[in-house]
Amino acid sequence: MQQIISFLFKRQVELLYLLLLLISLMLSINSHSYHQRQYLNSANVLSSSLQRWSNEAFTYLDLKKVNSTLNEENVALKNELEQLKSSVQLLNRAALNTAFGESQFKYYSAKVIKNSISRYRNYLTIDIGANDKVTTDMGVINENGIVGVVDEVSAKYATIASVAHADVQINAKLKNSDHFGFLSWDRVDYTLFNLFDVPKNASVALGDTIVTGGMSNIFPEDILIGTVVDYSIPNNQSFYEITVKLNNDLANLNYVKLIANKNKNEISTLQSKTSLE
After folding, report:
1. pLDDT tens across 85-97, in order?
2. In this structure, is residue 88 part of a structural domain?
3. How far apart are CA 225 and CA 240, in angstroms?
4. Is 95 domain-assigned?
5. Contact 126/160 with Cβ under 8 angstroms?
6. Residue 254 belongs to domain with CATH number
7. What pTM did the predictor assign?
8. How many CB atoms lie within 10 A of CB 169?
9. Are strands 241-246 and 224-232 parallel, antiparallel or unpaired?
């Protein structure tokens, strides 16, 4: 308190000057209409500026809150979208099974998460596995025809030996005559395959359609494979050498369908016993 009194005492002249200046300004404003208008205008401008700055400050704070809310809503929407995607995939799988009824074959839908086409043994990886009833040796197709055969299975994933794999052979036939043989990759071009063991008495022409033969436990009959682009009968041979262009584009695979043969174990067991006799 003593310091305040000492300060006021030391600054009494300056303080008196400021007081008299304030009084003179007030008297001048009250006694002159021009000064009064200028004062009011200045006060209004200052008040408006302060109000605007205040509004902008509050608006900025509100925008931060709004932005935070929008981010939270965006995260919630993304989570809902992922849930919807999962639901759609489940519905698709259920629809496949319903469409094919209680037939010998059951179908499962899967997404391709990795694919190769430039190797000697090409593989795909899909996003379902043993938890979804995937087993080895299941046939794999899509809307354009054959893709490959399930090779290895883990709980949540599976690998597929592509039809463009050096060790994969597919039972195939000429659609127009039912003469059959086996299809294997030419190991050079992932779009070209060789069809062997078709007898020379079969009628073959360029453009003929090749489909699955149905004589294996992997693929149902008549699934599209491709078309004949070349053929010949080597000298002193009883069978054609047929070149088939694959209908499917193995470099552009997104979703595939896995085929479970419900009678596979029974057929395999019976055939094993028969081969031993």
Report:
1. 666 666 666 566 5
2. no
3. 18
4. no
5. yes
6. 2.40.10.350
7. 0.65
8. 15
9. antiparallel
